[in-house]
Amino acid sequence: MGLDKALKPVRLAGLSLRNRIIKTATFEGMCPEGIPGEDLIGHHTAIAAGGAGMTTVAYCGVSPDGLTFSDQMYMHEGIAPQVRALTAAVHQQGGAVSAQLAHCGGFSRNRPRTSRRPLGPHFGINQYGLFSGLPFSGAMTQRDIDRTVREYGEAAAFVKRQGFDAAEIHMGHGYLLSQFISPATNRRRDAYGGSLDKRMRLPVEVLASVRQAVGDDFPVLAKLNLGDGFKGGVTTADAVAAARLLAREGVDAIVMSGGFVSRSPMYLFRGDSPLPYMIPLEPNPVQRLAMKLLGVSLFRSDPFRELYFLEEARQVRQAVDIPLVYLGGVSSAAAIEQAMDEGFDFVAMGRALIEDPNMIRRLAADPDLRSACIHCNRCVATMSTPRGVHCVLHP
């Protein structure tokens, strides 16, 4: 029953989707010098051709100051032709395409244009830029915050003009909005820090800016952490309260996720550590040495199990009535069916669709289908290769 529901057409806000399967945003590494390449178009076109209802283009920076490194794109007219080619190619295959709007905040190795250092909730150590000449992050002023809110709206208007069908505001994984939400990384004492309502003020302002830019019939999703994965970070109770607030403020759906890139990446991934494969691909020798010495504490293998965020996601499901996207350990028809039966409205898949973009078409013929993904997470390391993200089982 649940699988049949997952594969039938559905509407999200003003958008018609052919099914409830969403390819989640997984950074592709296919924008050399910040320009979307043919590989990026081919990657998402293959997922659309394989039957997913919607595919999500990862890390669409809202400004040049919002990138973690230089080979990421930010939303501006200079890349409009390539972006339009991407959305048109996905549509030609019958799929929809969403843009993940993101800003790195104080976590970057990319030198910003408008400040001396990356800016986040407060002054602190920039863990990503520590060995790349940007060891510190600064505190955003009200002027910085106002500019960033405006940039989110401008980026949203841009992606709508270029043919995207939806926008996902990235509020998770330790990037800017997640840095403001988490009590571990937000130590402000003004209107943007302290209680959860105050820590959510910037994400809510961004949501309002995006909504004003795209209108009511254009789906706006938010990717939100169910937990940060370390002591002192966001808890499930925080996530429930944040989801209620976002629902009240008019978000169309919440993609439930977890983990901090800078502190607990394996809380999101689960499975084998990709660190041994990441180290040789790091071009900066100092950064490479740091990864060898310190990376083990970040990238500890964590046994994979299907639906590993289910318990936390259930609590959000009980608290809000808006559409929820279940993410986390979906690699079989049985997992999709259970997620549907649990009351979630959509299912997001990452590694399983990297391993086989055609998996969704195959589901209709094989209700016992299971992904061949072995959760080795070496695809995470391939993001840094010239080819970009790919499954190592298919060289």
UniProtKB/TrEMBL annotation:
Keyword Oxidoreductase listed: yes
Superkingdom of the organism of origin: Bacteria
InterPro entries (UniProt xref): Aldolase_TIM, DUS-like_FMN-bd, NADH_flavin_oxidoreductase, OxRdtase_FMN_N
Annotated NADH:flavin oxidoreductase/NADH oxidase N-terminal domain residues: 8-255
Key words, A-Z: Flavoprotein, Oxidoreductase
Keyword Flavoprotein belongs to the record: yes
Domain DUS-like FMN-binding: 311-362
UniProt name for this protein: NADH:flavin oxidoreductase
